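#random but structural
TW: two for the price of one
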Amino acid sequence: MSGVNIQGLSIKFGANEVIKGLDLQVREGEFLVLLGPSGCGKSTLLHSIAGLIDVSGGSIHIGGQDMTDAEPSERGIGMVFQSYALYPTMTVEKNMSFGLRVAGTPKAEIERRVNKAAQMLQLTPLLGRKPAQLSGGQRQRVAIGRALVREAGVFLFDEPLSNLDAKLRAELRRELKLLHQTLGSTMIYVTHDQVEAMTLASRIVVMKGGVIQQIGTPAEVYETPANLFVAGFLGAPAINLVPVTVAADGVTVNGALSLQLAAGRAKAGQQLVLGIRPEHVRLQADGRWRATVELVEPMGNHQVVWMTSGGQGLSVVVHDGRRITAGETLAFDVDESLLSVFDAASELRLN
């Protein structure tokens, strides 16, 4: 088990600087998720840790050792890619043991490691099969097993579930979480899927344009987003963002919602954006505001209600099973204690 310490990391492809002076400390034994949209630099960062990309500046330490310029084979890492990259003519056992055999690992040790990984990943009955005889989920398990047999200090995952259907993603997500609990290894996982990030991570690193926007536990990042980008990127349905202007008495006004902010939180004339999670909008008969229902999405155990109030669109998550139809007018309120308030100019959170 090893930690990873990245300081002042810069990566350029020609004139394009993809990673910009990035600092990141990955603790021993944690499950760290790099989250962000396509092109934000998360996979580039992961590949630089693996030694697959040369860095332009800064340093990468793994297990206390400077690995900035080390070969991938010297870094003590195991990596799982988005594509399974299995050898089609080899059995599951041969695929999992290939790297160990090339490294000259004793036969008995190879057998021990393969059997241990196969048991963890429920692959024991499949060791004699070839990839063409396996489902997508089984193939990804083999790819994970191939990394596990290295018994590395750090495991790197580059969107390993993105090629699977929703049901398989949910199953393997759960298995990866259990695997981390069993091994206690340091794991760094890249995804653009917020559900994967929220369910797997000890901590989430949200990235945009090669720059870290926020680092925190899933609860911290979701409940207290550092800026408008983080607020809008996490959450399904997305957070309601309501532009407002602060009046002289501290009341924010936008024509739909007028709310009193705590003293000192904002100044008169300031342009703000209120972040209201859909689950914090309450449909109740004595609500302070009225809205017209535009659309209702049944989701099984809850409904997502899309409505407008004074020209402002709002989404609401409703769990009580009531029947709601498009066109009706509903009274609603919001839990002001759970509001996120952002400065419109800087897009930063106001504490």
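TW: number two ↓
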Amino acid sequence: MEILKAILFGIVEGVTEWLPVSSTGHMILLDHFVKLNVSSDFWKMFEVVIQLGAILAVVVIFWNKLWPFTISKTSSINGNDSAKHLRWKEGAFAMWVKIIIACVPAAVIGVAFDDKIDELFYHPIPVALALIIVGLLFIIVEHTKGKNEPTITSIAEITYQTAIIIGLFQTVAAVFPGTSRSGATIVGAILIGVSREIAAEFTFFLAVPVMFGASLLKVVKFVKAGVHMTQNEGIILLVGCVTAFLVSIVIIKFLMSYIKKHDFTIFGWYRVALGIAVILMLR
């Protein structure tokens, strides 16, 4: 039964991590109705570390864009001998600098206030309110800015200033679960003229260091607390991560195809409906 629950959590993580509907919010809400038979310390780690499966999906799909190096060959003067050299791909260094810059605000907030954020906001009602507020914001942005012709249509066109602004929007999601990291960064990017497709792609790239760092932080805290993972808990974590990876592969490809012809309005209405439903159920 616990394996089936882990699969369910993996499916929810894989679907909601990349759609702008808040994976953390859905995980908190799912935990409210479907409880894993694990320790509270393990659960706090599990709901974050399961994201590693989703991260791996991004790395696999976008490997050619994310891997910053390429191999070049140089020949000797007589042309008989050649040597291979590892060098940066054109534009790769600048792209990764922008990604790191955009991640700094959320990283600082996460490290400094992680426990306080858990205490204050990791509850169904704050999550429901965040779902509704950001859902309404999506609807408003799509009906105003979303109709404009984007001024940034490639990753290379994202400036350092633009990366910082997107990073600040990501910080909101780091503080308020239910906001959605992808939702916050996509809304912020669209507001400053980034196309939907590039906004989604850059959001995926930001996820790699952000989610890896968040997972590492939770694992370190778990270990420092002197808590030992049981064999069953280890299996649950593995199953959840593998499921999240497989589902994420499908969802990322779906989203990149979907936004070529559609906007994000439907996700806004979904967020509002879910938030209202949660509040009504908890009355």
